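Structure tokens please, single chain.
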Amino acid sequence: MKPTSSTTSSKLGPGEYQPDVAVTRLEDLPKPKIIKEQRNEVQRTCPSCGKLAPRVRVFTRPLHDVGDLASGRPRELHITYSQHHCSTCRTYFSADLTDIAPRGSHYTHRVIALALRVVVEDGLPYRAASWHLWRDHRVFVPFATIQNWVEAGGEKGNGTLGNRLSAVGTRRLLRLSRRRRTV
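Here you go.
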């Protein structure tokens, strides 16, 4: 039986069949949909002394976010933020972006939480989790990065991910027993 044009759909969503297509080169990935946000202010209060500090520079930080399933393209946030200089304390500080992503990260909190959930709760291996994130959520995260996130949330609980991870740790979350060696 041949599928008719009325039964086939060009937009695929969760739960619908998508054929697995292996991406062997990064250049073959679809171009991301760019979303621009502003955290650019002329003056901000200094976190140290509380005085108003003028803007000195403007930067743009690209962040990978969970993709758009309707278009099948990844999403990238381009956040324009300002750096300020307080003449009273003689310190430089930038607009706070920790509500969107951890310091130094290339991924948003949503991507990190999704990757950790796939590995810790669903029990997928790191490579399979990386493929799952691309196939179902259109965000490319290398498996080694996912491994680093899981290990950072393990024994320490609040490593680089701040309050986004449970302080329980992966060992207790997965209910793994820790056997002590008797010597």
